């Protein structure tokens, strides 16, 4: 009897110890699983934290007279990075970060913000700006810090002309490209043309380039009028043009305070003066009802290009911005982003400005406006523009630029002016 009792106790002890061992083993397994999982999670975080970063500083007029231009550029740039990186915001194993700064359309502010981006944020690239004045003020900083600056959407010829330095590349078209397109629409032997433009670098360069292109086609530029870009009353300027009695008035303009209403009020077209200009952004088109039937040119309207990149841009822009279509400077912002990603892909992530110069000179890349190519001599992107006629379209409350024909990069190639 005693033996049975001892045997029973021994058996119970074995079961308890076995259970304890099983329980401990389960705990060890559970603890091991949690620890390994945590290690894996930490490992991912460490990889992300240690991933190298490409930083891009974007200068734009996010307030002020050119606010709409700055916002279009920003939206296009963000969509361009997404398109070019397939949504990863990475290139060549490096993360892309963007810092935006508002220049307020003031050159002195643009310099301050650019210096902050270069000194404090340590950006690898600069992009901008909405104003030619802002951009010209910042160009020397790109050279001083040896950083590539993509100029978008500023158009002054001097940016890739007299003020050019080797770190400057421009996806925006320049005034001479606009001029060739504008002259092609109206200039021919015997035609008399007056010009009207704002009194700063954008206007000066635009008129100078148009005058040369128009005279090369046989037209005569009989009067040039420059107006204060901040003015709201252009009557005296326009009256001088009326008195000159040209066949056409070619207008170079940018900004919210456009002259179209006063041109209408003065009944210039009824007086035999045809108006021609570059078709502007949608906000400005909305006050151009008096110009229906006008033939001119445009940098971009969303229905004009026929390519996959533009199709993607239009579709995605509508999805993200309540059905709104991309505007005049949206594709430029997208093109600037695509150019940076393309250059970094070719350099395998190397952002050194001096090394990128050789890679980007002559580089071609696909944009919403088709193929662009950075001309090696002055880093100006050769690109298409569009000969158009403004027409009224049912359901749209502004005159719509309708395509006459695409002006190919070979046709709009501007002179090299940085020698």
Summarize the structure in words.
This protein is an alpha/beta fold. The protein folds into two domains: 53-173 and 304-383, Response regulator (Rossmann fold, 3-Layer(aba) Sandwich); 176-298, Response regulator (Rossmann fold, 3-Layer(aba) Sandwich), CATH 3.40.50.2300. The chain is built from 13 helices and 16 strands. The chain has helices at residues 2-50, 67-84, 107-119, 132-145, 175-186, 201-216, 235-244, 260-265, 282-285, 308-320, 330-346, 353-360, 409-412; strands at residues 53-60, 90-91, 94-102, 125-127, 148-151, 168-170, 192-198, 220-227, 248-251, 274-279, 295-298, 364-367, 370-374, 381-382, 385-391, 400-407. A seven-stranded mixed beta sheet has the order 8-7-9-10-11-15-16, sandwiched between helices. The protein has a six-stranded mixed beta sheet with strand order 2-3-1-4-5-6, sandwiched between helices. Helix 3 (107-119) runs parallel beside helix 4 (132-145) and helix 5 crosses helix 6.
Q: Brief overview, please?
A:
The protein has two domains: 53-173 and 304-383, Rossmann fold, CATH 3.40.50; 176-298, 3-Layer(aba) Sandwich (Rossmann fold), CATH 3.40.50.2300. With 419 residues, it is an alpha/beta fold.
Tag the structure with descriptive keywords.
13 helices, 44% helix, Substrate-binding domain-containing protein, signal, 6-stranded mixed β-sheet, Rossmann fold, 419 residues, 16 strands
